[in-house]
Design goal:
6-stranded parallel β-sheet; 312 residues; alpha/beta; UDP-N-acetylmuramoyl-L-alanine:D-glutamate ligase; binds alpha-D-ribofuranose
């Protein structure tokens, strides 16, 4: 990479408790699952780790509980070389956790208990202002308070820093608060919650992305899982084809896409190629179990990209 991107994530960190089962219990029923995995997760942390593995310098701004998971999460960031100066441990609240249920074929259902993530406030963004002012890109998701997200989007706008907002998990949004972000990147479910337009086809994805642009978002990337990603802007929209893989666990694939996209774009690649590369990075992450632990390194990614000749 000719230019090393500097990326900040203002966002969540969770511990993921993932259960793999052929089916899930009905109310009042107890059944046996097949497999369990404990790992570091949280949409913010996952995106930070993906960005770091892809070669960026990464600053994390987050809150954790004063418990086993909190300390371990800080150590995990530090071991990867992520700047933890603005990762704070707070008393009286648990770290964020996410029980996750994965079906055969890799589809997941996630329950998030936000815990300390909910205490990340605009004052924490102010406390990290010097570090945030030195990055190229700030990345945000929806597992922290909306006031903090809106405040950080405004901080990025004022300081002319590229800003990427990933509205996950799905919540209704006010485009007036977040529309200054350079990129708005929902998946189908999130886009449907925000626009009311269900996305089952590429045509519906185009309509949905058009509605988001009309609401005031500047550039939209609608991630479509195994159908790829739709890149939409006032100049038009284009479907970026997916890379075919056999998925084991799709958890965190959206985070892999966003963290890697921020790096590819920050490194100076054209937007379309950044999306193509992020499509492959995300696809590769689905071939292994877990979230952060399923993310390929930059070297693994580049080898696969070259092997496939950069072609989906
Ligand atoms: O996107 C996957 C992530 O969602 C998991 O790591 C889980 O913690 C939830 O935040």
């Amino acid at each position: 990479m000719s230019k090393v991107p500097r990326i900040a994530v203002v966002g969540s960190a969770n511990v993921d408790l993932t259960t793999f089962s052929d089916r899930f219990p009905r109310p009042g029923e107890t059944i046996f699952g097949q497999r369990f995995d404990l790992g570091f997760g949280g949409k913010g942390a996952n995106q930070a780790v993906a960005a770091r593995l892809c070669g960026a310098e990464v600053v994390m701004v987050a809150k954790l509980g004063n418990d086993l998971f909190g300390e371990a999460t800080v150590k995990n960031f530090a071991s990867l070389g992520i700047d933890t100066t603005h990762v704070r441990i707070v008393d009286g609240v648990s770290s964020g956790v996410a029980p996750i249920f994965v079906e055969p074929g890799g589809q997941n259902r996630i329950l998030v208990v936000k815990g300390a993530n909910d205490t990340l406030k605009p004052a924490d963004v102010d406390a990290a202002a010097a570090a945030l002012g030195g990055v190229d890109t700030i990345v945000l998701q929806f597992e922290i308070p909306m006031e903090t997200i809106a405040y950080t989007v405004e901080f990025a706008r004022k300081n002319k820093i590229r800003c990427i907002v990933n509205p996950a998990p799905a919540q209704p949004v006010d485009a007036k608060q977040l529309g200054a972000a350079d990129y708005f990147i929902p998946n189908e479910t999130e886009a449907e919650v925000i626009t009311g337009i269900a996305v089952h086809s590429v045509e519906e994805a185009k309509r949905c992305a058009g509605a988001l642009l009309e609401q005031g978002f500047r550039r939209v990337i609608l991630t479509l899982g195994s159908r790829g990603a739709l890149l939409a802007s006032p100049e038009g929209s284009e479907l970026i084809a997916p890379f075919v893989v056999t998925p084991t666990d799709t958890t965190g694939a959206g985070d892999a896409f966003i963290g890697s996209f921020a790096v590819f774009l920050g490194a100076g690649l054209p937007e379309k190629e950044a999306v193509e590369r992020a499509n492959l990075y995300a696809a590769m992450s689905t071939t292994k179990v877990g979230t952060q632990k399923s993310f390929p390194t930059g070297v693994e990614f580049t080898a696969e990209w070259n092997k496939r000749g950069g072609k989906a």
